[in-house]
User: What shape does this take?
Amino acid sequence: MDFIDFDSFLDLAKPGTTSNLPQPQPALSLPISSNIETFGKRFTNLNNLTRNLLSLDDKLNEPSQPHEPVRESELARKYAQLSIDLLKKQHQHQQNGDDGTGTDPSAVPATTSSSATASLSSRLSRVFNNQLNDSLTREIFNTLEDKFPETDSIKELIEPGSTGSLARKRLRGKVEGELVKNQTLVLKEYQPVMSQLKALEESLSRLNQLNESLNSKVDKNFETSNSFNSKIKALTDEKKMISLKKNLLIGFKEKFTLNEYEQYVLSSGDINDEFFQVLKKAEQINENCSILLAIDNPQLGLKIMSKINQLINTSIDRIISFCNKTLSNLYSLNSKSKLLTLHQCLRFLKNKLNYFNTIMALFTESRSKILIDEFLSETSTDGKKSGDHDSYHGGNSRPVFISENDTVRYIGDLLAYVHSVVVNETDLIASIFTIEGLDTQEKAEFDQIINQIKDEVLKSMARPVKSRINQVVSSETKLLTIYSIFNLVELYSLMLSKQLSSSNELLRTINELIKSSRDRILDVINSRFLTIKNSNLAVLELNFDLQPPEWIIEYFADLLPILDQIVSSSTSTSTVLNFNEKENKEFLSLIIDRPIEIFNEHVQTNKLFNVKQDQLILRQNFLDLILSKIIPISILSDKVLELNEQISGLTKELTQIQLDYLLKGCLLYDHFNIINMIYPFNDEESGDDFEPAIYEAIKENKLFNIQEMAKVNVLVQEFLPNALLEIQRSLLKLNSPMVVNDIVNDSGEEFVKFYHKFGLVVKNFLDFDFTWSQNEVSLLLGGQNEGVLIQ
Amino acid sequence: MYDTFDEQYAATIGIDFLLKTMYLEDNKTIRLQLWDTAGQERFRSLIPSYIRDSHVAVVCYDITNKKSFNNLDKWIKDVKLERGDDVIVVLVGNKSDLGNDKRQVTAEDMEALQKEVGARFAIETSTKANHNVKLLFKKIAQSLPEFGTNSDETEHRKNKPETIDISVDNTETASSSCC
Ligand SMILES: Nc1nc2c(ncn2[C@@H]2O[C@H](COP(=O)(O)OP(=O)(O)OP(=O)(O)O)[C@@H](O)[C@H]2O)c(=O)[nH]1
Ligand SMILES: [Mg+2]
Assistant: This one.
């Protein structure tokens, strides 16, 4: 750092320097400032250096020396200023202490004088404050002596005045020359380094320049690339946004729009798998639109929806018209693909009930119409057959003619026709609406639909069938024919119930027809009875031959075949014509009891039969006829029993008449009555334990005497021998020989019983014996019971 | 006719019905409408109404039951009464599985009758052993007038032939039509 110190020396040599004072050596200038100040100076220098080093500016190459003097002088000035300030202050203090006034004009000169003093003092202090210690000083002087041995000159040197000064100047010149020499030597050593550095400087500066240009270029590039980058970034961001938008739009398009091709498929493409796929998509879009409707602006959703809806509606219209067209032309369904497409359509429409129902309604309507037309032409009563229909029967079926003489066959043909229509229609509908590959639930739904359509279509037949059959039935009067019709209808009801559900209108109608034909049977019978009942002819027909009237014979001629058939056909049921218990009873009562009733009325009203026996025989013959007719019929067994009861009732009455006849003939009639009044005979007493004594009261009777009894005894012997013949003659008109027999026997037996007991009573009270024993009497009266009586 | 066989006898009530679609060679299909008529006397009156619109009458008897064979005359007469000669009559002797030990009607008997009544063909079958049943229906289909001329599906729907299947059944367990 000695060089720096030397610099200050150079500074002093400069002509602009204010200090004129002689300075023996530049080194002296250094120690003047205090250590701290030097340090601070160095420190600032250091700071400057650091600053310079750090900064990238080109001051780097600048030599530091030229600055030093400036700093030096500045420093000096600074110190001087400080000193001056100090003096000023002191001066001010003094003034303040005197008068306390601010500024004093006298202060300015004071300042000038103090500045002179300060420069002097600083120069002195530099001398006195010499840092050089004594040894060093000695060394210096020794060196000086060595170098400049002329001792004499020392004296000159210390000599005041000009010689001294001259001498000193000489010495100084010498020392300075020496110093210059030395320093030149030292500097010379640095010369190569300097030149090297100089050489380096150029390349360095070039390097620096390069660096600088590079930096600036880099900076420039950086700037351009920076803006470029930001541009790129902006663009990428934009791109990202756009692709996002694009994806959104694609997604949206996918979810919410149909492309043109798809629209075409829906609006005018073929109805096929693709069509339904697109349609499904369209529906999906419609569904998705609910999301769009939920956003703030539902406009878009509404728009899309209306558009898609329009397309869907067009598609549905097309589907409907396809269905209707296909269903109206069933031949087209022979093509499997058409059928499959139809199935797709139906499956699609199934959830749109109103559309589906419309189609079904149209189909059922057209089928119904075809069925009715066909039915009417097939069964037309005039036998005319209208044009070619979509007929099951093809061209060569023959219409069902009504024939005068065979209505049963007509009904049979008609029902067979209905049967074939039912099975064919069932098959047709099933073949159209049975869709393959359905899950069980859907299948069940379609099965139900099939049944509905079937019911609906076949329903159309119900009315014409009903009217046709009713027309025949109501105009038919032959019981057997009606019954055959009834049977047919019943059988068909059974057969159709295999194909049709019980709720089916046609089946219900058939069942109604069963009832109406049955009712017709009842009607016919009833009206027949009514006619008979009111017929005078029927009453008049009854005459003394006492035979049953013709009408009952005719009636049974009609009824029996029916009953026979009922018996042979009804295997399981215990009732006829499918009646319930009560109806059955009523019916049986109608067919059996009612004619008897009517007949009895007729007998009553006919004045001819005032003789009771005739009436009884007539009725007996009537019942006997009926009995003979119904005895073999198992379902009428109850009625047979009833009839038997009635017959035996009549028989009893007839027997009584015969008994009366016998008693009267023997004058025993009154006695018989009296005896019975006292105590009626009964069978138990007919034996040996008969006690005549209980009839003592008979003695009170005037007629109960010997004379009377003798008369009786005579009469018995006169009357009885012819009585049997007489009785048999009177019963000649009774048709049943068995009944005649019964009457004869019973009355005879009864008479014999009485004759015997009465004989015992007479014997007891009158001690009179009848001539004929009871055996004899019995013999006369037929005698079959002889064995019984002889006990 | 239902492609099943049931040992249990269940008498047909009235008229049973079946639609049978047959696929013949040359891709021809034919739909046969079969009416299975009951053999019992009490259902007999129904049958003429079905013969009316039928093209073929398959008259069955039981080869183990001579009486059923003898009854054929009566049934064929019924058929002819309705349709005259405008009908194809086919004779079927069923229960050929029992042919070895219980046979009462010989093949010669059958052929003789076939000639006599002018039946289109006669065949012995066994529904139990499923013998000749398919052949029977095939032959029926082939004997139909429509067959061979125009036999695409449409035509057949229109000219759907109907087949009467008459079971002769006097003995309650005699012949069979359960094909
Ligand atoms: N062994 C044998 N038995 C048969 C054959 N075919 C039918 N059967 C039996 O014969 C009986 C009557 O058969 P069905 O077919 O019901 O008779 P069907 O002629 O239809 O009777 P109806 O309907 O009353 O006229 C049944 O028990 C059958 O099992 C056969 O080929 N072989
Ligand atoms: Mg059967």
